[in-house]
Amino acid sequence: MIQRDVLVVGAGPAGLAASIEAGKAGAAVLLVDLNMQPGGQLFKQIHKFFGSSAHRSGTRGYDIGEQLLREALEAAVEIWMQSTVIGIFPGNKIGIERGMDGKEKELVTVLARKIVIATGASENAIRFKGWTIPGVMGAGAAQTMINVNHVRPGKRVVMLGSGNVGLIVSYQLLQAGCDVAALVEAAPGIGGYAVHAAKIRRAGVPIYTGYTIVEAKKGKDGCVCGCIIAKADDKYDPIPGTEEAIECDAITLAAGLKPVMDLPKLAGCTLTYSSAFGGYIPIHNDRMETSQKGIFTAGDAAGVEEANTALEEGKLAGISAAEELNLISKKKADILRKEIWERLVSLRSGPFGERRLKEKESVLKEYAKRAGIPAAEDQEVEKCH
Amino acid sequence: MSLINTGYLEYEELKAVQKLPGKERYKKGPVAVMECVQEIPCNPCEAACKFGAIHIGEPITNLPALDGEACTGCGACVSKCPGLAIFIVNKAYSETSATVAFPYEYFPTPMAGEKKKAVNRKGEVVCEGMVVKVMNPRAFDHTPVVTVEIPKEFADEVRSIQRG
Questions:
Q1: Domain that holds residue B145
Q2: B164 interfaces chain A, CB cutoff of 8 Å
Q3: Given a cut of 90, is residue B158 above it in pLDDT?
Q4: Of A1, A140, A211, A362, whose CA is between 20 and 30 Å from A256?
Q5: ipTM of the complex as predicted
Q6: Between residues 61 and 100 of chain B, which touch chain A (CB distance below 8 Å)?
Q7: How far is A267 from A297, CA to CA, in rounded Å?
Q8: CB within 8 A of A365, min separation 6: which ones?
Q9: Are A58 and B59 within 8 A, CB to CB?
Q10: How many domains, in total, are found in chain B?
C-alpha cells in the first residue's frame, strides 16, 4: 500500500489548485484523474476568462491551464492520469485503477491522510423525439471536438440552451467555421451573460427565446438532418401548431451541468440538494471539509459554478488539508482563507451570482447544523436506518 | 430590455444603461464605447487602460465608467474585454465618414484595404465598410482589433463585419 499526505481526485482547476496549495506547504500530494491530460475543462476554454484582473481574468483558459500545470510541477505534485478511483474504504483507503502508459492498468491501494474530491460535473441531457440520433450531443462534447480534437461536429448546428455554455460554445462553433443555424432557449429570456449573446447575435445567429426542440430529424445517412422547434409554454412544453423546421446536421445540448457525486456518496458524505448549484452536493464548511472528517471537496463537485470559483475553492481545500497536517499554522491558514472568501464573495456578487452566494451560505449553515461539533446526532440516526 | 430576449440592445436601451460619449467628445476624435450592460464580476478593462480612463473599483460587478476626457481611443481595452463589448468610434474621421474599431476573432483575419459588409448589433448588413486598420500584436492575445471606415450616419450602429 502506498501512503500519501493528500490524495486529490480530479485534475481540473479545483483539483490542481488544491494540489498546488498542499504541495507548496510541503505535503506529499498525489493527484489522480481518469482523463488523458490534466487540466479538466481548461484546455478547451479558448476564450478569455471573466473575473478580476488580479486573478488572471482576460487570460484564455488554456493559458491558465498551462500555468497551473507549471505550478503543480514546481510544487512537486505527483500526477497519475488515466487513473480511476474505484473505491473509498474506511480509514481513508482509496482503491485506484492506475493507468500505466498504454500497458495494462494496475490496481493500487493508497492510504491518504487527507482526501480532496474535485470530480467536477457532468452535462445534463434533454430528451425529445430523435435525441439518440447521431449528431445530437452535449455542448461540452462539441466544444471538445472543435477545441481539443479539431473536428467539426457538423456544418450547421442548432444549439439548445442559452446559459453561458450554450452561448460560448455557439461562438466557438462559429470560430471553428461552423454555421449556427439557431440558438433555441425554452425560457423567455437569455440565461447567460448578455455580452456573450451579443457576440453571436452580431455574427448573425438567430436566437429563439421561448422555443424548444420537439424533434430531431433523421436523414438518409442515419444522422441528424434537421430539427423541429416550437414555441414553449410556461412549463417548457411545445405548443402545438407553432412548429418550425430548421435544417442542420448537428444538435448540441447546453442544458446545464450536475455535480458528479459518486465518490462523496461512496465516502458517506452527507449530501444536500441545491438547484442553484445543479443538484446534490456534499455539505461542507468554510474550509471545504465535508461531513466526513478529512475528506474535502471543491469546484463543480461542491456546486456547479465556473473556473474562477473552482480555483478559489480548491485553494481553500488545499490550505485546510495542509493545516490539518500541521504544515501550515492556523494563523496563516486563517489569513489565507479570509482573503479567498473575500474573493469568492466578490465573484458571487451581482445579479448572476447572488443566488449562489446565498445558497453557499446555507450549505455552510447546514454543515454547522448537521455535521457540527459534537459529532452529529443525526449521523447516529442515519446509521440506525 | 430586449437584450434579454433577443441578444442585442437597441441603441436607445444601451444609452439608458451606459453613459456613452457625448457630441462634444466625439468631435475630438476616437473614443471608447463601453457596451457592457450587466453587473458581472469582471474588471480587466480597468487595468488595460494606462490612461486611467476606465473605472470599475469595488465591487468588481460595477459597470465600467469611462472618463471620455482621459480616453485617447487607443483601443488597448478592446482586446482585453472578455465580453468583446468595447468599441472605438471615431466620428471625426472625415467630413462624411466615421470609423468603428471592434474585436474580431474569426478567420480569415481581414486586411487593410479590403471591402467588407458592415453589420449592426443584430448581425444585419447596414452598409459597405472599408477595412482601414488591423491591429493584432502579441499583447492582444489573438484578439485582432479591426477598424472599418463607414458612412458617418452608421457610426452608432455598425459593430462588426460579416464573417468570411
A1: 2-161
A2: no
A3: yes
A4: A362
A5: 0.96
A6: 61, 80-85
A7: 12
A8: none
A9: no
A10: 1
